[in-house]
Every structure is written in C-alpha cells, then in structure tokens.
Amino acid sequence: MHGYELKKRLSGTLGHFWSLSFGSLYPALKRLEQAKAIEKAYAVKEKTRNRYVYRITPAGEKLFARLLSEPGSRADITDSDRFNLRMAFFRYMEPETRLWLLERRRAYLQERLDEMKRSGWSSRDRETDKYRLGLTRHRIEITEADINWLTDLIDGERGLLAKKDRGGKARAKGGGKEEDALEIVLDGREGKMMPSKA
Fold first, then answer.
1. 115 pLDDT exceeds 80?
2. CATH 1.10.10.10 region(s) of the chain?
C-alpha cells in the first residue's frame, strides 16, 4: 500500500494508542526501505507525482517479529502509550512473550498503586483539598482496574501455556528462584530474563 493509505490504516487501527503524522511516516518508510525491510512494489501515476506502493519483505517480517519479541526499554513497560502500542500487536507474539510483558506491566502498576496508597493524606489535606484527594482516588481506582484486567489476561496466557504443555509442544521457560518482576525491569536485566521460544 502507499504512504497515504498506510497512514489511514494505521490511524484507524492504532488511533487510540498512537498518532502518526506524514512528517514521521515518510522518513520511517525511507529508513525501512534502506534497511531492506520494505520495498517499492510499483508506482501509481498521479496528476502531480508518483505514489509508491510498498510491500514488506521477508527481512521486514523478521525485523517485525524481532522487535515484538525483544524486551525493549523500561519505558515500554512503564509508559502507558508505549505499552498499549506494543499490546496492539500481541496477537503476533508467542504466549511466553505476552505473559512476560503482562507480568512486568502488572508488577509496575502494583508498585505505583502501593506508592499512591502509602503517600497518605493528613486530615487537614482531606478537608481542604477535595479535588486533589478526588484525583488521587480516581487514579487509584483506574490503576486497580488495570491490575485486575492484566490479571485476567495473565490467567488467560497461563491457560494457553498449560494447554501447550499438555499437548507436549512447548514448555514455558522458567524454573529456579522466581524474582520480583519489577526488580528485574528496574535493574535493567529484563533482556536476560525474556522467555525464549521453545
């Protein structure tokens, strides 16, 4: 598809998670083309210029799969927009990878929730700043809802992995001492702990 159509499709698919401008799209297409991840399939003659229709190459498919399976940076877990963008492509990931990312996001949110609850409020603050108190309660409720939602997703992924185990296909990597997921992310060791494909 050509650049305009690609922007339209990405905006329709990812519009709630990520905004894309032509100013960032066309340089990205150039970089992907230089990396041999995409190629121009053909040109469509327009009145004033040619529109190039791109297609993904086998190297591009491998790059996409690699980018999805890499642990990424700490911000990929802690930044809601970045996590949501990555999650929009979860169906292309292995269950072990999805589970790994979901557990780390939940651990991060649980830590944030604990901090919000520990911060406490003096009785004077409760009486004089009902808006800030209301905002804090709202954030706590949203974070609790996100943790519950992630827990449901984690349970679903564990169910998929259990079915794979029963089917004799792949075993989830692990074993040994379990570490705190947030500690792994904050220590920058998440790349070493990412599950490998069985």
1. yes
2. 3-65
Strand-pair partners of 56:
38
CATH classification code of 3-65:
1.10.10.10
The per-residue pLDDT for range 29-87, each reduced to its tens digit, is 889 999 999 888 877 777 767 778 888 899 999 998 888 878 778 888 998 888 988 88
Predicted pLDDT at 169: 53
Query: Quick one: tokens of 62?
Result: 């491998």
